[in-house]
């Protein structure tokens, strides 16, 4: 059995060894001469980058839809600024800490099993067509992890505190766990199975983001009016379900790039299986969550369908390359159930106010995705074999990786949010929260003045 | 003249015969070794898949915009759930019924000229990179056909009935006509021209969906207040024209994948001509419809521009590969005119209430697209020659295909919708319709509580 | 030093000379046989086309968001119709005037250094897979230039006048400057540096569009209530900040195609550097503009972040291929500052009412982008060297190009808008402006009847 981590192999194969030996290649001529299929691989990765980038808009819309109108500018500004600030943070620091030492491309030679130490600011040997391609692909993944948190902390978190968080998570917290799994670090080299495996980031991106979302929401505290004195919770409805739906579609659309793009090569034709598994897990999660809700309450709850599909997508992100289509349906359907249980657990047991369900969608289902690799990997790809292929070792590696991401995210997140809370402040004042953050922090309203217009009853017979 | 159906040839060339002979190839290594250009072809098809998938969001937005606010959650839930349910239906059954016997890829050997019978659940020999790629591409097309119906039945159809419809149309009704044309069935092998030709689905997707939309809308009946006692119709305005516009843009965007992706191969450089023809027909339809409206009423009606562009896109979908750019302009312009005439006809003569114009956009213009192949195909591609290339035989094949899709859709649709009506029920109660389906069927409002906000007059001078 | 213009070289390399010599190739078989990498290049360009096309939706949303609800249908109809009308104009005339004589593909032989004269209606030798691919790519760029103007003239311009403008700018004004730079015209052949260089259109698209926006806004005059008697300006808030945010995300998403697609070839692996530079300039512009605003006013202004990112993207569009990532950060950050200064300048000094900031975002930052080539081009690509590579000649070529675009756009725009004003009329009547253009010109409301719904205070504690 192959004990090299799968992704590191992929990185290695995506960059011709010949090209790598010749030093930085800023025009790509050396790379192309060494491997003419670099062209199609570059196209594939760039398309995936664009799709994953666009997921930022999806997150913004979902979170805006679930917020009240008075906090909409706040939440969309956070979603916009986190990738902007994170972009500079990952350019300067994050990428080097994550991929230094991986030798995945030019300029990434220095690092150890805990942390990377080369590639800062994409200068020197990192000014190379392969290195910058890898940077941008990883950049949009880092932005995804970072933006998950905004949802769980929605409607009561100060914009300045959130922007400080964005910088630090992208520069430091995300890259370190990422290095352990994708940068050739210790988790990738565990002596179980092929080492911990996370194909496209159920753990690196979603579980990490979801666990940070949990600790962030806990530290900032619930919104005013969310919990009653007796500990029971109230529903605080969002303001626009069309935004939730459109945002979910955009996320689903982007997920094709997120998962299938993670081969980093189109010459790896497994991309079609990955895309199919992604699709099937997403639809299975939606169907399961909606129908359970329908049976329970008699109502077809759109928000369950949306979050169910996202739960399935998150869960299949780690195993998508290693499993058969039927397993994707199972993983997605289970994710839909986990979602429903987890949302209850977070609200009723943990007493955490998570307005969009980020902890359950990304955190818990991200962990489920890591576990699912150890169960359903069928051995057809990358030598990864789970329980159904008669191998228990991979499951051990996956569980270690799950523990690592939970511990790392909770500890690092606790330190980070506590630090921000004590210095620049994390939570808006009661006055601001009542008035809405849009006016107080942004000087803008989402729907000013003569916005949508004539008065009518929502449930009436107008027209 | 070549009498093999064009699409079957394309399927054959998209999968190397060498690879096909070796049995299932779940990693793609055999396929790539046999044909290195598989990489670029996979990228092309996967990009097209993502784009066509995203069209679901376009349909949802257009239909939401044309609905009243009280029914918005209902219509977007339908648009979301139809592709989810359809995804499972097409995975389990639809694909096998449509492509079994086509021998287009591994695991699709069994079937006859009426129906396919292998590939169920993508198991066995169908766990192959080529087969699953074809599955996903066909899946998003099936979802497109299914979702057309939601528009024409908007604002009065029960969600549970609609979800049952979604399953059955994707598992059964769509695949059967699809098999006849794209799966090597009898229409593809007609002894006229090269057999019935429908490059990207004016007939298979749009005419079928549009005819189902017609029979569905007829059986469910008009919305309360649509028709007066004397048979004249009232305008029931939608609630958000921005959604209509954005949805149309998303559909147009996705259509590049829909049409140009239907080569299933980027090594077929005709893709550029297809994309150009798609674009030109769409813009010609919009210009024609808007300007005729402007001349008639003095108003520049955005909804005519949007539906005109969609009409042009639908019409060019069958002929897009076989015609020159000038013909695309003509086909699109004619589609804009057909749209206007058809909308009147459906409402005034057929007395059918179609809130979004789905019957006219997809149904009637889908038929026009099939016909246009027989007229404008210029013989430069796939040996398809229409009247302008001096060949009348193709026109006969096209007309037979038109008759087949109309008869099949109306008969199968009538049985399907009648069945649902008598068992689980198709139409919401009067009370529900008055109150709005969002509250009654979904327990949600699209714009709850403190949604868009200050009161002002739409036409006033606020700010 | 290479004195051939960079883009003309790219066009030449993107079409095999062998293929070109054989006359039109409507199926692509000759082209593919001569150069098998045509497949991946076609995919790359078609993906870019789809992305740039989708930017139309981004413009529509940004401009709709910044408009008042009563003028929303008007602005989105303009954004929809300008690419439709422009599509026909560029098909018939614009492309031929721009690329005739470039010999970039079949059917483009006739033209001189001032204007092109072949390729009209894509007939004859222009019915070729390469020619039509180039046409569609250029078409979506032309539509981008045209649509910039709608923003600056928003809320008071007649739809019929605007549609006439759309035709003339796409058929005539855009192509002529475009020919000078991209069609082998006189600017491309200046005897300084490698001639004027504009990789993806900071000048050709954005500065031209932005300068037309300036002259158009000046001629149509400010909105009622914008300026007080003493010349001071009032803020007229838009109606939906979510649309502004979503539109900006769509534009950013599309910009990956806009810039990286402009190689017209995926075998040019520099595409990864271009995509990275595009991303970095966009985020740097947003961070700079938002933080300066935050320091000034204490508010985190979303609209500054959005326009700041767009300013950075516009500015990096010309230099993106020629610079290192650090320079993209500098160019983007400077663009954010230029934006703030320019917005003030346009409003306070020029007394021009530009509701969306189009003049500053596209016009002024487009000029900055042209200049930046002459400063930051590092000589790694296409032989283009700016000041930092020790070469002053390129800067001279860039400055000449800047002067040319300003003069051409202002003069041609002045003639065009004056002509429309005197014939069909440019400005809506006072009555129409008060009532809103949606009702008066379109017979539609953006949010009719029972649109968003219950009454609550935006800043209150509803729910």
Characterize the structure shown:
The structure is a homotrimer of 463-residue chains. Chain A is mainly α. Chain A contains 16 helices and no strands. Chain A has helices spanning 6-14, 17-21, 29-34, 38-66, 72-99, 129-152, 159-182, 202-220, 241-260, 271-297, 302-317, 325-349, 358-376, 393-422, 430-435, 437-442. In chain A, helix 5 packs across helix 6, helix 5 packs parallel to helix 7 (159-182) and helix 7 packs antiparallel against helix 14 (393-422). The first copy, chain A, is globular, with a radius of gyration of 22 Å. The interface between A and C is large, with 85 and 76 residues.
Features of the shown structure:
homotrimer, disordered N terminus, disordered C terminus
How do you describe this structure in short?
The structure is a homotrimer of 463-residue chains. Chain A is mainly α and 463 residues long.
Ends distance of chain A? 68 Å
Mean pLDDT of chain A: 93
Number of helices of chain A: 16
- Oligomer kind: homotrimer
Output the structural class of chain A.
mainly alpha
* Strand fraction of chain A: under 5%
Considering DSSP H and I runs of 4 or more, what fraction of the residues of chain A is helical?
A: 55-70%
C-alpha-based Rg of chain A, rounded: 22 Å
Q: Let me know the largest β-sheet of chain A.
A: none
Biggest chain-to-chain interface with counts = A-B, 76 and 85 residues
Q: What gross morphology of chain A would you assign? A: globular
Q: Name the poorly predicted regions of chain A.
A: 1-5, 451-463
The count of DSSP E runs of length 2 or more, i.e. the number of strands of chain A, is: 0
How do the helices and strands follow one another from N- to C-terminus of chain A?
HHHHHHHHHHHHHHHH
